[in-house]
């Protein structure tokens, strides 16, 4: 596996959503060339690693697809624990799949407690004529739960790359936020240690002086 | 582990044909269940205790139920991806969905069993038990069910139970860690795939991974650009065939287990239909929050799993909160109360909020007289806000001293506090201005029934978010006054208000409290169950309340050397005598009463 071999940061992204909303189609479309051109063993199907350069930085995405296993209710936690991003995919022509998204969001928020970037994705925009969920409704919902929103079509290859770019950018922003926080904390710790050392010195020096005087 | 295998194979000599026969029967049964037909009624033995069953026996029975469904999965079901079609999946892919349902059933059953107990230790032993079951299932190559049990333990409703997990034994935890590693999705289920590939029949693999792969390959086939020649098989078709073949290679599995009717009946009872499963997921999580709240320290709601505190203290927290939230009687609109009174009321509520956890000093509040009526440790009294709302703030500090040392009679309450008396009058206006207000004796006046009613209130609170409004529970007017003096006295009516002399007979001992201008009497309990303190011998609800400010015709008299004192109503001529244990005590009472009554009237003293 390529994961972890390079120094570029690795992000884990899970694709969640009702069956038949096109999760695997999105993933397939995204990694299409690889899938078609190389011999593919079963161990590599439904799981993709892809390097991506965003804002001049190279990151590696590990994309996990839950397709086909949606009905295994309890598998969710196994997938999404430890992931930095989650794509919640629904079918814009299927109200039920949108309602299912809400359950996922609730679950993710309970378990990951805001550590993951959520991206709500409306798939099948090529079927705009039979659209059931209006873009505004979905956008509003995504905003209310602090998630990003995007629409795409795996069939027509509309905005698929943008999808992964969007979530990667958001994850990078979150990661840099965390790392700056950590760096700040570590900096502060180191400086404080230094100052303590200095003050200790002055104290030990000052104390006897005072006594002498 | 091999040893276990041999132990489990109860009857290795049994011909496999008879086994498959029995499996066909079981299979039919399963199908009936899956079609949501009425479940066959099998009575569960009353004495059935899961923890007393051997994990391997449970595992064997689970496997026997899984196997027929797995064996019946057809290549067509897998090839067409029929299980993903929301509408037709049950008819087109009955066995693939059947396996999924089995997985979910086991998963829910495990969660339900663990969450059924309020006791942390019991839950922990159930988790240990299920880890053992999962291990046994894996040993008998029922990867599917083993995964179901492990994923149940990984579900948020179980996974978050920190207290419970802390009590799980180390060796079981290690086993669990190994199992989670095996069932980790890392590298696209690499460990699980490798484990499955090395298994030999009999084995029930986890279907989910295959399903994902199949769907993926199927999607990839759809996308192919170049059409295939007739009879030619593309790469993806080959892949798909390989997947289906590897599933099929396990389908000839036969387990030489015998059916155990008791366990079977038990496992049948865990079944619920599909809709039930969906509904249950939420309720399981709710239940999980119930047995172990998110942050046990920050929640006032008691739970069985928070570190043990006596139910008493928990309830008193509740009752104090409840009282302090309504420092001003609700019948008076806040606007008509002067601002500083409101502020004071807020102060009082803030104070009572801060004293919420200081239970200790409450005990000293009513500390005693000669009788040693110390420490009111009574839930009914805990909501008598001891801070004097109607005295000014400076006095409140003093009054605390009084409370701490009530054997010394306190200074009379500050006079001429017009705001306070206005507030007070409003409070007392709902007290009937009769001489002695006879309260309807309540049936539920013992501490225990009182606590029960508090529990009832609590449930009401949990359900409705507010406490039930009980008029009598709005608080007595005397509650805002500190207890100045307490004693166990005998009471006797010497002459009624109609000037009729009555037979002088002292009553049973009463618990009498002097609170500001109120004399409060409590009757003895019929059967005192808890009597660590003298106070607990008496009922929580007062029997009589005498308001000396309204009924200011009363005078207290005391004859030297007598151990009783009398209360006279100069207007009606009613005389009530109280007998103390010692003359000095009677003197103390008389003095205290006189001081109160001298507030705004002359005092008759007969020495």
UniProtKB/TrEMBL annotation, chain A:
Membrane topology: Lipid-anchor
InterPro entries: P-loop_NTPase (IPR027417), Small_GTP-bd (IPR005225), Small_GTPase (IPR001806)
Region (Disordered): 192-213
GO CC aspect terms: endomembrane system
Entry coiled-coil feature ranges: none
Record bears the keyword S-adenosyl-L-methionine: no
GO molecular function: GTP binding; GTPase activity
Subcellular location: Endomembrane system
Any Pfam family: Ras
Key words of the record: GTP-binding, Lipoprotein, Membrane, Nucleotide-binding, Prenylation, Protein transport, Transport
UniProt-listed GO biological process terms: protein transport
Keyword Nucleotide-binding in annotation: yes
Family: Belongs to the small GTPase superfamily. Rab family.
Name the record gives this protein: Ras-related protein Rab-21
TrEMBL record, chain B:
GO molecular function, one term: guanyl-nucleotide exchange factor activity
Entry superkingdom: Eukaryota
Keyword entries, A-Z: Guanine-nucleotide releasing factor
Entry keyword tRNA-binding: no
Feature: compositional bias, Polar residues: 303-316
Domain Ras-GEF: 54-294
Record bears the keyword Iron: no
Entry GO terms, CC: plasma membrane
Stretches for region Disordered: 1-22, 295-335
GO biological process terms held by the UniProt record: Ras protein signal transduction
InterPro entries the UniProt entry points to: PH-like_dom_sf, Ras-like_GEF, Ras_GEF_dom_sf, RASGEF_cat_dom, RASGEF_cat_dom_sf
Pfam families hit by this protein: RasGEF
Protein name: Ras-GEF domain-containing protein
Source organism of this protein record: Panagrellus redivivus
Origin organism lineage: Eukaryota, Metazoa, Ecdysozoa, Nematoda, Chromadorea
